[in-house]
Amino acid sequence: MAVLGILFLLPFVWMLSSSFKPEGDVLTYPIEWIPQTWNAVENYREVWFGRSSFALYYWNSIKVTLLTTFVSTAFSCLAAYAFAKMTFKGRDLLFMLVLLTYMIPPQAIVVPQYLLFSSVGLVDSHLGLILLNSFSAFGTFMLRQFFLSINDSIIESAKIDGAGEFRIFFKIALPLVVPALATYSILRFIWTWNDYQNPLIFLRSEELYTIQIGIYQFADSHGAIYSLMMAAAVSSIIPLLIVFIIGQKQVIDGISLGGVKG
């Protein structure tokens, strides 16, 4: 397992090492894992303050990713609670329809989505990009499983004491599924940050590009300069590492609880 772990880490180490080197040392063989000549300051300065708008792409990604994560988590949580703990006509049928949407490949609905968003003026806007990923069948299904684990007697007791549905949801149910919320939020953050297809299709203006499209634009404007491309790639994964380091305990707790419940 340790050997496999090291093998998986090697591409990342090469990327990090290459981002510190002058261009002439990037493709030398045997590989210099620790650069003999350091060019880190020049590489990262060119990425962040050079000809490209890398900082703008970065800010666009942070804005779109944070808003998408917040909206998607909120909607999924509300829908999951309704499907798990509320009784209304057609609930199970509606939940089955939600699950069926999860079976459809995203590529199959790109054209209808584009036509729909184009008709209401949401193409080439961050609002459209945020709405695209704000409704998740997976998030609804995942959080519903955790809400189902809450004993009904707790909710019935709260109703007897006069608590309404919103108070029960926010004061009783929500605190009991925090590990699941953290797990889904982190997954949604990673998926949105790494999303390449939707920004490529739905964004036209360069000032709206996210980091994934920005890196492609960066590589196109600078040519095949691997040291700069690796510096841009390393910069692009910093938020993912920060989010994972901060939330790893919650993710592990959420997966453990899911395993016990499963």
TrEMBL record:
Subcellular localization(s) per the UniProt record: Cell membrane
Keywords: Cell membrane, Membrane, Transmembrane, Transmembrane helix, Transport
Transmembrane segments: 57-81, 93-115, 127-147, 168-191, 224-246
Domain of life, per lineage: Bacteria
Occurrences of domain ABC transmembrane type-1 (ranges): 58-247
Gene Ontology cellular-component annotations: plasma membrane
Membrane topology: Multi-pass membrane protein
InterPro entries attached to this UniProt entry: MetI-like, MetI-like_sf
An annotated GO BP: transmembrane transport
Keyword flag Cell membrane: yes
Entry similarity comment: Belongs to the binding-protein-dependent transport system permease family.
Name of the protein this chain belongs to: Carbohydrate ABC transporter permease
Organism in which the protein naturally occurs: Paenalkalicoccus suaedae
